[in-house]
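Why show two proteins at once? Because comparison is the fastest way to build intuition. When a single record is shown, students tend to memorize it. When two are placed side by side, the eye starts asking what differs. So, the first record is below.
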Amino acid sequence: MEQLKHECGVAMIRLLKPLDYYQHKYGTWMYGMNKLYLMMEKQHNRGQEGAGMACVKLNTLPGNEYMFREKALGSNAITEIFANAQKDFRKLSTEELADADFAKENLPFAGELYMGHLRYSTTGKSGLQYVHPFLRRNNWKAKNLCLCGNFNMTNIDEIFDKVTAQGQCPRIYSDSYIMLEWMGHRLDREVERNFVKAKERGLEGTDITHYIDNNVNLGNVLKTTMPDFDGGYVVCGLTGSGEMFSMRDPWGIRPAFYYKNDEVVAVASERPVLQTTFDIECDDVTELKPGEAIFVNNRGECVVEQILEPRGDSACSFERIYFSRGSDRDIYKERKLLGEQLTPAILKAVDYDVDHTVFSFIPNTAEVAYYGMLGGFKHYVNDQKIKAIESLKHIPTREELEKILHQYVRSEKAAWKDIKLRTFITEGNSRNDLASHVYDITYEVLEPGVDNLVIIDDSIVRGTTLRESIIKILDRLHPKKIVIVSSSPQIRYPDYYGIDMARLEEFIAFRACIELLKERGMHSLIDDTYKQCKEEIKKPKGEIKCCVKALYQPFTVEELNEKMVEMLRPSGVTTPIELVFQSIEGLHTAIPNHKGDWYFTGDFPTPGGMKLANQAFINFIEKVYQYEQKF
């Protein structure tokens, strides 16, 4: 119900032909820039805080710029950065604008390498200085590094100490800037290694420069940089000498896909983005495997290399449930199955009274799961029809057949997303009142007091929108019962790999758990878990376990559901309400190839994730729960 803040999105394009090739074949030398724009717009769902792009020109002469960058803030940032990149184009004649050689020599962003980024901050840090790409300048082309990524690192404190111990002084404390400095340092060493080799070969002057530009091995840079990082990531980079790379984390948490032919190499966070942009089939796109990196050197040679050994099978399941576009072939099927699998639990919730149940969904991300849920109920109703006909034991009359066959699954669009609450309204009561109007209903889609209303969403995280808006607005229909369905399991644990879910106290499932522990006099379990977490974070990272899991062990899913309903029920609403969640087993059945489920199970794939989960409970007790005052 609450809009989760998306991870970032990345897009990269390397043109493998001269610009005039694209001018003659496609009618514009801006083929690469146009494709980058499409890829970024197709991934706008992944980040609305800001956007940035970068470009590298190959084979420029000294005294001419060869790396370009634009960044902007806000939901219209994509449009803004491309408008800025082309702001001087309107001064040109038609002939000049169609001249690829003129563009290459005179215009910014008329290059062969492009990088794009869409940002949402999961750290709370905002401002243009935090918008990717980041650029590290140097007078040696090969030492210039432009970096962007979809990542959140859990051990940035350790990397910061390592960087500063070498004498570096990062000007900003963030994983992006520290990664830039750490990787830039290793790139410097790689350039210097090639400098020594060039001198050993007897080269002098610009011949040394050409040797370096043609022999820099970014695989060496990544192999000496990325083993230090703990987190989920897709890191993308460009160098001034024309090298390009994109690497995926060894746990496979964050996704990356690539496409290559004899004209381009392209990378994106989602497969359908590449399919749509380049008008290709699903099987033409390749997923970058955990720990792999794709490289394109300054001669246009493309290789995929295993940089780090895979450390687990932890591809983020939330990508499939919510974040990634549902137009992906496999994601669409998975979301439908998530909805269909909930049929037995929903049937139980409505006491098998399908005739008096209306099905709907929360716009807009739950729509595909809704189709799956309807499909499950259509199968159920058809089975009931067959059984009814078989039970007649005679040739049915027309009236009997009509009565049986006219049974159907009643689906309606009961809820509408009406407005988006504007953040400039800060006064609490005003915000709460407006929040209750974020959704609207279709009136008279069910019979008051007779029909149940089943409404599905992809996840229930904080519960705020349920309490402040959804339940109140649905209650205006006066259903016999409201059944709120989540196509994902209960979210019980924080995320530290790129999703805006870092604090335990935000989750309605966690708050319900704490309330049940208090009600049942189980204060000692809270006390013991707090102490265990304090001890656990002192251990070496490889030995740390998630102690927070112990808090949930005394309770069934149903007990937590009942407590959540009690906590979410708005004042004055008396309609019976029931929550139905996807099971963990159902999740893995529907999404078998994306086993990352730490937000549901507490099974964090990396040591840093385990440590931060324990720290989150410590923070909750000490800062939110005011531990000493309670016990």
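Second record. Ask yourself what differs from the first in the token line.
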Amino acid sequence: MTTSGRTGGRRLSLQLVRMGFAAGRGTPGDRLRFWSLCAAALAVAVVALAVVAAVATHDGRDARNTARGPLLSDRQHAVALWREAFDVVGEVQHSVIYVERLKADAPPPPGLSRWPAPGEAMLSPELLRDGQDEGISTRYGRFAGTIAKSGLVSPSERLAYVGVRQNQPGEGSDSWWPVSGFGQSYPMGETLNGRTLADVLRPLGALTGVPALALLVVAARVGSRTRDRRAGLLQALGGTWRHRALVDIGEAALPLAAGTALAGLVLLPALLTDVRLPPTGYLLDSGDLRTAWPGFALALLLSFVGCLLAVILLHRVGRDGTATRPRSFSSRVPRWRLVGCGVGVAAIALSQYAGEPADVTVFTVGTVLMWVMLPSVAAVASRALGEKFAVRGFRAGRAGQLIGGRWTAAHPGVVVRISAAMIIGLGLVCQLEAGNSRLGDQAAAAQVSQARVGAGVLSVQSRYLTPPAIEGLARALPANSHLVSLQTDQRTESVLIQGSCATLRSLALPCPAAPEAVRAVDPRVAEIANWFGRNPHAQVADPAKLGPDAFQGTLLVVTEDPEPGLQAAVEQAAYARVPGITVETLGENWTVGAADKARLGNWVLLFGSTGLALLLLTGSLGAAAEFVRVRSALAPLAVLTGSDRIHRSVAFWHLTVPLLIATVVAAVVTAWQSLFFTATEESGTVSWAVFWSAVAVCALLSALIGALAGRTASRAATRWHPTAD
């Protein structure tokens, strides 16, 4: 190729790009297409940045967890003794690490400026903040400072390092591990319940990434009618796919670049400071994100290029120049979509017979398949009803019903695109609510117990409960609080409650010298029987003189009228005497497990709500694109009818009615699926208030779309004039 030929080729390429840039600013619906592409690029780029952030956070967590893990050794080479225990603040479990330095020159664990002295505690900032109302700053001893970020897997981790008091029960036992230093991966703190990187990327991709791609597809198709004409002209002039691609690049590059740049601005605060992710409460470590800046730059570049390629590939032209807009069904819904929906429904119904753990997979696959194909079912119903509406409109002489019915029958794909967001959104909201409602029988019983007696019965457990520790604990208890011991017999399902006569009388129990069956008059005794044995017995005895073997290391602190802060006071008294002791309400371990599950659900809610917002935006863009088509098609009718009422009538029958039908179909199927889900899962409930609120929102959105379409068409009619097209 000669130099002049190459120059001419570059000149033509630049000219085609400029043509696309000009077309993006001077065609009908250009502003809608610009903001659609901008929003799509923003969504795709944010998802790409989230993937990089997840990888960087995972790597940073692993590095810090490895740096702080204890190196186990024999006593001869040990520099410290190390022991891990667990405690709870606000139904969230955290690790309590007891340490005792053996060598003066031993470096402290990562994140600590020095070793905690005996009776001192160093807490993570998040534990100190969340446990302030529960007396966490003094629970383990004197507060000696906070743990630096280098010793925490994340800024939101709850962790405590405690210097053990001298000569406490259990010191020197096999529960103390000699360590020679720190520097290996060890499950402690937040990593005990940590999720793998795949556990984060899967819901991110499924719940947020897929809706972002759906938004990109819809945004790329906005304004396809005008682009079809332009592509047809280029085809007639001998243009190839390369020439059309250059025009598409000129049209889409600016909005895509703007959306990608906005995504970079969204990331900026997380690079400057630790950002808390609602509703999870998790704090992103800004240091981890700053180290990943090359990955973020590459993600922005790739997302921009990917969006640009999607715009080009989704606007193809057939060899004969006639099929210019993206392929989609218009007059007939493919049968395989209906079959796919039926398969999804069958998978949901048969999932209960698949057995664990396959039942969850079958249910999930069936749910996704049903939701994806359900809009097509609504489209079939809308087309059938559209034909009936057209017939009735013709017989009654109602032009709006006739035209709207025929448009609906001819273009069911419009219903699929607009209703998909509402259908999937309705199902997603109800399934998330039903899934988060599952507690399990034990967790539900624990919540009932806490509501009934609260801190009136506290369980105190440790295998190092010696008589001196028990006596000291009894003396340090708040007023009106008493100690009782328990002995359980699994064979007879009985529990023996032992304590002083005054303590037993406070529980409305007699004071027998030998074990005697009693009635549970006091609700605290009833709850003790529910958790430890169905047949309660009582006996006068001093718990301090029984020894831990007699009551399996479990004591109860009973209080008649527990005041706020009682549990914190008992915990402080217990930790002062026995390190690693457990103080909890009845069934607290079950409520902690339920709370952990709810926090996991918050991540699903974060990704799901973001995806739902993207789906609603996708539906809104689809509706807005339909407004443009309705506006241009309905405008000439104003001249023929002399009234703009037909615009509102056509919009009602073409948009509002089909979307209301889709809402009804989605409501029926979602209600069936939610009831089926809760019937086969433990303690699941359906919140009908949430369900009907979601249905009402979808119905309101259907009416709003039709009203806006009619108003837009009416306004366009006043400016319409014939053109030679």
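One difference worth noting in the second protein: Residues 465-578 form one domain.
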